[in-house]
Amino acid sequence: MSSNHAINVDLELLKKYNRPGPRYTSYPTAPQFHRGFGPEQYREELRTTNRGDNKSDLSLYFHFPFCHSLCYFCGCNVVITSRPERIERYLEYLKKEIEMVSKLIDPSRKVVQLHWGGGTPTYLSPEQIEDIYGFIKDHFQIAPDAEISIEIDPRTISKEHLPTLRKVGFNRVSYGVQDFDPHVQKTVNRIQSDEQNEYVITESRRLGFDSVNIDLIYGLPYQTLESYRHTLDRVLELDPDRLAVFNYAHVPWLKKHQTVLPTEAMPDVSERLSILKLVIDRLTEAGYVFIGMDHFAKPDDELSKALFEHTLYRNFQGYSTLAGTEVLAMGVTAISQLHGAYAQNVKSIKEYEKMVDEGRLPTEVGIKLNEDDLVRKYVITEIMCNNRVFKDRVAEQFGVDFDRYFAADFPKLQEFVENGLVEFLPDRLQISQEGRLVIRNIAMAFDAYLEKDRQKDKPIYSRTV
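Now predict its structure.
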């Protein structure tokens, strides 16, 4: 199975296309969200999702922003606190938002996916986890076979956390490891022992979680090709079901704390791309399937099966096997993804509480998709997930001729065609195996908003490779 998906990693190709660009967890992307789409617009869009006979299944996302300490590489929306009363207060307001949203949703709609992210969701005590999960379950119909996952910092959990998570219904866990090298850990303010990592993996297996994921980051200060080789060797000993190996996004114009990292100690472009090549080569040699961008999975994993069957999907949580679901996201900064709109909650906890107290959905920005957005969203999703776009399917779904509709965009693909990364066939646009390494760049050719983004005074996106 995996031999058909082997990839020759060409470093010169990676260097050529190492440019700023979106990650395409949505289209249009987050910079296009605006304040003209607020609570009332989101409320109306939620009502719209209940209409008709073929209502979509649901994916629920809950954001828990709290952390004990700040990792200097972090690009997430977090709140550093040591005050447990802040968490308790936040949970009370989250319950109020859950009540508001659930009242707008047809109760017959099933939740087939549920995810807790952060921050550090396991900053919650086991008792708080049990309480808030029970509240969610009382307000939504969770399918018996739903994927129920949580992001975990191994440094923060007690011996009661994992048994509690398993008892209430979580069946997938994702552990932030980032790097095993002590010098790198100290520099990024995330000191995490081998013993902590090994304990959570072993305990997850013992408790019967269906899937264990490990997150790594490359591009951090003091990482070298050799040091990262040791990190990969150690990770492979832990034998996770999935791996997400993220390129560190250095965006100090958005995340001021990243300025404390010594940029002179960061691997240069050649070293960083060599690390990426090492990651892909080492993990695929070990039997993992390269799902796309930064995701890897074992051959019998649902993600791998979806890749081979061309049924992958992509949302703000990354690659998914559950295409067609609508994401309802709750908590500060959380982004909901409906078929026809995106809505992001406010970033400030104070503003979140104020809006919830007023009985308003805490939506700050969003966007309603127009017809062109929907066509391009479909094409970009197919490129990012399934590495091809069938022309007749575009015609069937949107009533447009693919070649005529995108004629003005095709010149942007010419260099990819000349380099053997994209092929125009009579029935489809096909991405080659090597083209998958620069898939974000290829997708950018179909993005109608990029030219406007390029005219802005400050950078917006991290680099694509």
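The first strand starts at residue 58 and ends at 64.
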